[in-house]
Amino acid sequence: MTSSTQLSNRQFRLKTRPSGRVTKDNFDFVEEKIPELQKDQILVRTIYLSLDPTNRIWMSDMEQYLPPVQIGDVMRGLGIGKVVQSKNSKFKEGSYVSGVLGWQEYVVSEGRGAWPLTVLPKLPGLTLEIMAGAAGMTGLTAFFGLFEIGKPKEGETLVVSAAAGAVGSIVGQLGKISGMRVVGIAGGEEKCNWLRDELKFDAAVDYKSPNWKQQLEDATPDGIDINFENVGGEIMEAVYKRMNLHSRFVLCGLISGYNDTDDSKSRLSIGPALMKRIKIEGFIITDYVQKFQEAATKLIMWMVAGKIKHKETIIEGLDKAPEALNLLFDGGNIGKLLIKVSDP
Ligand SMILES: NC(=O)c1ccc[n+]([C@@H]2O[C@H](COP(=O)([O-])OP(=O)(O)OC[C@H]3O[C@@H](n4cnc5c(N)ncnc54)[C@H](OP(=O)(O)O)[C@@H]3O)[C@@H](O)[C@H]2O)c1
Fold first, then answer.
1. Can you give the pLDDT at residue 36?
2. Could you identify the atom of ligand 1 that is nearest to the CA of residue 336?
3. For the purposes of burial, counting CB atoms within 10 Å of the CB of 54, is it exposed (0-12), middle (13-18) or buried (19 or more)?
4. Whether the CB of 285 sits within 6 Å of ligand 1
5. d(Cα 33, Cα 249) in Å, to the nearest integer?
6. What are the structural domain ranges in the chain?
7. Higher per-residue pLDDT: 1 or 233
8. What is the pTM (predicted TM-score) of this model?
């Protein structure tokens, strides 16, 4: 077996906080020697890195739900990796784990603490790509946002924005499983066709088309009972105007503003929330950590039964991470965006 000290680790360390879009120049891409493992430590080789809109938030020093990544630190990032060496009986060599691995090829960890690593189950059909997305943090975000806050009812109308993305595509399918009329908002014909034809959404609104507001009106003849908000800005305002009495507004994300320092694009007039008794609730997926396992089991069962389909956009090579993150802001991904760092 190769000793950890013979391996080197390439990693992205934050050099400057981005202003607007992220560039490679915001990072130092460095190579370091891996230290000898101590008692209870494991060495994990990164296989997939999950690229998430929140990576952009963590790079900034705006008010947020976690401390921002500090200048000089390895960029924080979720991922899936393989335990290649272990001095910890809870983690066997050869097992796969998920958690915060960082934008790097290897991580030395004790697997516990503020960022525990979870050993992935081995189940037929359950691929690492699924665990990194549809049955991982992405699927769980869709699950808890919709069921805990949205509280779907059969026959109601659900609208989800960034609908062809990682979270949105699962939200819509969970809405269909719940017997809802599901309308997705996405950029471009290819994405809208995928939502309608493959994921069986009832309607898809192409917000890049000049008549998208009319499309939204036509797609929601009975108004909107749940808005699953991923985008903010003009799309959010148009949806908000069509919300029904006692409707629910699940505030999951506001991606249209993450590259801006000014959040004025995502302001809503509060009056309609009073008049129509709209429940607006924000959430962060870590709020539900105690219930993750139960929800992941349900998601996997629906996937195995063919009730939830998933797609991944996979970019090869850790060195591509900074530029690839911008795909999320340009709509360059369908489904979950992953960086493949090494082979399983
Ligand atoms: N609250 C939580 O705990 C939590 C957890 C995970 C994710 N989130 C949030 O959920 C949302 C989706 O995340 P994700 O990981 O699933 O990403 P994603 O949807 O896979 O990718 C982002 C998508 O957003 C759309 N988009 C980007 N900028 C836009 C703009 N200005 N206007 C309209 N659409 C835009 C793009 O699709 P188009 O081609 O359709 O434009 C893009 O593909 C984000 O807001 C994220 O912050 C929240």
1. 93
2. 20
3. buried
4. yes
5. 48
6. 4-133+311-340, 137-286
7. 233
8. 0.97
